[in-house]
User: What shape does this take?
Amino acid sequence: MLSNKLKLGDTIGIISPSAPIKEDLRERFSRGIKVFENMGFNIKLSKNVYSNTLGYSATIDEKVEDIKEMFLDKKVKAIICSQGGQNSNTILSHIDYELIKNNPKIIMGISDSTALLNAIYAKTGIITYHQNDIIWGLGGEVSEKEINDFKLRLVNGKIGEIEHFTKWKCIKEGEAEGKLIGGNLSTLVKLLNTDYCPDFNNSILFLEVYADSTPLDEVDSKINILNQYKVFDKIKGLWIGYYEKDTELAKFEDVIKNNLKDNDFPILKCNDFGHNCENVLIPVGAKVRLDAKDCKVEILEETLM
Assistant: This one.
């Protein structure tokens, strides 16, 4: 199911399905909003975008109300998450997916928003989008590469090869095609064996890890959780992103190679998606071709109308 492309002058809605926007983040939030306003978009803040009713988060009802409002509002053409956190998965069983299916539109986030992006795709078939958020992405140092990629994909509707911001690396050679699913490793693990987990069969899995909260031994543990759930028996290819605390002694890719040495699918590494780096826009649910030898991922089908 396809959403509509954006046009300059359209309204983008902002929601906070995870961590609250506390006072010390208001300035970064405003800077991130300004980026979209400077691009030519209007902004609508959800009713509870600043809510911190629980002292660590908005309530489930507040978050679900905001999602419903944004999908019902005909003027809102895209929805972007303000930031990540830890608990967006708490709302998944309360969302009206039929309402979303009947009102398809672009929804984008990163980190803990992985739960929302994959659940919406799994329950509705609507392609969702992984790119930087308002606060920690665009609210910091603005990346022209990200802005241009956002316009290229969501305004112009370009498909084909995904942009390279940095040099990519082949971990294991090969080519594969499949639906692109994934996001943050720690969040994706929360979806396993639930109704909100996407189908890993014949997919291309992309994974990133927030190094500050997930040291490599924990990455090792979570990769093994995916392994024990037979995820790596189902996928056709793996694409791994940026890990901020890679060293010469130990890297994210080393954990992957150690655990998946017996798997025969292609594995590709880049530094173009993840925490604290520039992020290409990745369509969750789109059919892609991964070519690890030539270090490219190509979108094979239209993702927007």
Q: What stands out?
A: The chain has a mean pLDDT of 97.
